[in-house]
Design a protein that fits this description.
With 206 residues, this protein is α/β, with parallel strands linked by helices. The chain is built from 6 helices and 7 strands. Strands 3-2-1-4-5-7-6 form a 7-stranded mixed beta sheet, with helices on both faces.
């Protein structure tokens, strides 16, 4: 099988067996971390599916999107941006959300700081923890399977908990709530791809 054929096969398999469950679980889990009647910007919203679930799961929630490559079929209202500078005024939203976006960024601090600028009170992040070489290798495989078929850039910038804490402090943020038990994958896949590799953190502006 050619490289292109392999990528297409992997993309179809991932979409059939993983994507739908992941989207549903993350949408509900993210919504559970948020206050009601909130205006939210989903930075790097992709097709907007997760953001739409969040909006429908939390009472009074309104969600807009910002995306480097906006999709015409996005499930929410979405504006394009350059990957760092969000096209919104200061404190335009109650908060911003990043779902598996920051580890794709070449400068996570720059975009996080701009999200803090357009947020009135909080940042919500779903991302990964990599504390050792095995974690890094597992996450690289997951990233390749989930994103390579869609042409997403893969810099594999995974952080340890200590590195995340340093990033938060530098951006003017502090943890308010953290979720690490996120049932994205069913057993036995969760034993390999679940573990403590995923987290959702609600961060408050200092």
């Amino acid at each position: 099988m050619s490289d292109i054929g392999t990528v297409e096969f992997v993309g179809k398999a991932h979409g059939q067996f993983v994507h739908k469950r992941r989207v549903a679980v993350l949408g509900r889990s993210l919504a559970a971390m948020l206050p009601t009647a909130t205006s939210l910007l989903d930075v790097g919203c992709g097709d907007g599916t997760i953001a739409k679930i969040v909006q429908e799961s939390a009472h009074g929630m309104t969600v807009s999107g910002a995306e480097f490559l906006p999709r015409p079929d996005c499930a929410i209202s979405c504006l394009g941006f350059d990957g760092v500078h969000l096209p919104f005024l200061d404190q335009s939203f109650d908060g911003c959300m990043f779902v598996d976006v920051l580890h794709h960024s070449r400068d996570a601090l720059a975009i996080l700081r701009d999200a803090v600028r357009v947020s009135r009170s909080f940042i919500l992040i779903k991302d990964h923890l990599a504390e050792n070489r095995l974690d890094h290798q597992t996450l690289r495989l997951m990233d390749w399977v989930g994103n390579r078929p869609h042409g997403v850039e893969l810099p594999y910038n995974y952080l340890s908990n200590e590195e995340w804490q340093r990033l938060y402090r530098t951006a003017g943020l502090a943890e308010a709530n953290v979720m690490q038990e996120i049932p994205i994958y069913p057993a036995p896949f969760s034993w390999v791809f679940g573990r403590k590799l995923h987290f959702i953190a609600l961060l408050r502006k200092l």
